[in-house]
Predict the 3D structure of the following.
Amino acid sequence: MPADPRAVLTRPAPDPDHTVAYGEHPDQIADLREPAGGGPARRLVVVVHGGFWRAEYDRRHTGPLAAALAASGRPVAQLEYRRTGQPGGGWPNTLTDVLVGVAELRRLAAAAMPGRVSTAPPVIVGHSAGGHLALYVAATAPETVGGVLALAPVADLVEAHRLDLDGGAVAELLGGGPDEVPDRYAATDPRSLVPIRSRTVVVHGEMDQQVPVRMSRDFVAAARLAGSGIAYFELSECEHFGLIDPESAAWPTVAAALRSLEEDQRPIDAASPTR
């Protein structure tokens, strides 16, 4: 891995080819990247960025990941949404923005990139808090989702609140703790929304210091017990940011997981490998 794993967050990436709006708010937008090369239309990949739902993190830090996916021949959309610390961010708008954005982006991308985007529902790639949002959309609007690749997802909001991840990030998102706003946790926490019927792959690094790897282990176990078809891959030499870095040792696993979602939309057997 690079000397500073966070370097990917500020690494320059090519400018997007298009920017589209799925709503009237300035942050209800997405950057689109045209797939390299020719060939038939392909399923859109929607990238949902992390940053603990906070305003200081936006879609731009997923530029290297999105550019690499586009270079591999995929149409890509980097979804933006309202975040905590800015007007309109947090409950419920952060969540509804992503629901609406995922539902609208296939149509918007197809119009902006004629002949390059198939009619199939998009695959969502979500990292960290973006992994939470991807799982949330798959659980609540499965008809809009062709598959989920959740990278180090915040998959248990109650536990994330208990651990005080990023200094109260979950309470800031939902407007309180699970004892104060239990209905909001019940409606948005992936751990309480299983089984998730969309085809799902979770990848997590064992060395993660931002989102504990046991959160994914426990979520996947609970999802399988509830009947979800879900695959889980744990990387022993990977921390939090390597999963979105095309130059990291983790990238081949991430790329292979995405291919599996694109190429085979049958339910994943619950006995899928864990390592």
User: Anything to note?
Assistant: The first strand starts at residue 18 and ends at 21. The helical segments are 63-71, 93-112, 129-140, 157-162, 169-174, 182-188, 213-226, 251-263.
